[in-house]
Amino acid sequence: MKDGFLLIDKESNYTSRDVCNIVAKIFNAKKVGHSGTLDPFATGLLIVGLNNATKALTFIEGQYKTYEATLLLGEKTSSGDHTDEIIETKDVPELDEQNIRNVFSELIGQIEQTVPITSAVHVNGRKLYQYAHLNQEVELPKRAIEVKELKLISFDDKSITFETTVSKGTYIRVLGETIAEKLGTVGHLSSLRRTKILNLDVKDASTLKNLNGNSVISMYDILSQFMLMKELKDEVEIKKARHGGKLSLKLFPERLETFCVTDDKKHAIAIYKYSELGYYECVRGLDNENY
């Protein structure tokens, strides 16, 4: 069975877990996981790991992601997207390009978001959407996020299409509601598409229908987009890394932060990081079931 990653262009009406279940059947894989959940109504780039590659997904999770979204103004829904009922309506003021750009500029940088009650974030041992289903009130947590870029693509009298690059944990639905609020109205997303995860582009992704053995990308080729890759040349050190052993600082005296060690065939072995105790410690084995 292959270890590696798939770049999948997810269609709407599938959960990210649905995609993993389909992939597991196609490839007869023991383990399948994904990085960066996409809501069922959303489309676009989903990185899926097969077998040992699932162990590296957490190191991809924190990367910047780029989305294209359309915000429909004048109607607020319970979920922030078009899949739920309208809970509030409000007149839409006349839209002006400069005004929209001014609002966008206010939101670039570090901002605080309130986590929506339709999310799977845990509060007091229960997922927020479970409180919503039970019509129970709960204090919604806030989190600091970063909007790295926010660009206007087009607009008309009732909708705005924009592109944004954001940090991990950003809810584009909430960003859309905030834009609407700053424009003096309410709104919800009528479409959402993830186009990039760091430099990986949905243009290079496959649909579920087009997946085959050639769709699998090596761990090296994907992880090298997110972290430094360092080759181990000594068989003793390679064996040590495969078993999660400490690596000497003499191998890489520059005191590297998180990086992946490989053999001379570019086979990803394990992820290491510098320890203040003066060596490199294994934080995740990638080709040994014990780590």
Please tell me about this protein's structure:
With 291 residues, the protein is an alpha+beta fold. It has 3 domains: 4-63 and 199-223, 2-Layer Sandwich (Pseudouridine synthase); 65-197, Pseudouridine synthase, CATH 3.30.2350; 228-285, Roll (Archaeosine Trna-guanine Transglycosylase, Chain: A, domain 4). It is 18% helix and 36% strand. The protein has 6 helices and 18 strands. It has helices at 16-27, 97-107, 128-133, 172-182, 219-223, 235-242; strands at residues 4-10, 32-35, 43-50, 65-73, 75-77, 86-89, 109-114, 122-123, 126-127, 142-155, 159-166, 187-197, 200-201, 228-231, 247-248, 259-262, 268-275, 279-285. The strands form 4 sheets. Strands 1, 2, 3, 4, 7, 10, 11, 12 and 13 form a 9-stranded mixed β-sheet that branches. Strand 5 (75-77) and strand 6 (86-89) form a beta hairpin. The protein is elongated and about 70 Å long. The protein starts with a strand and ends in a 6-residue tail after the last strand. The model has no long low-confidence stretch (mean pLDDT 92).
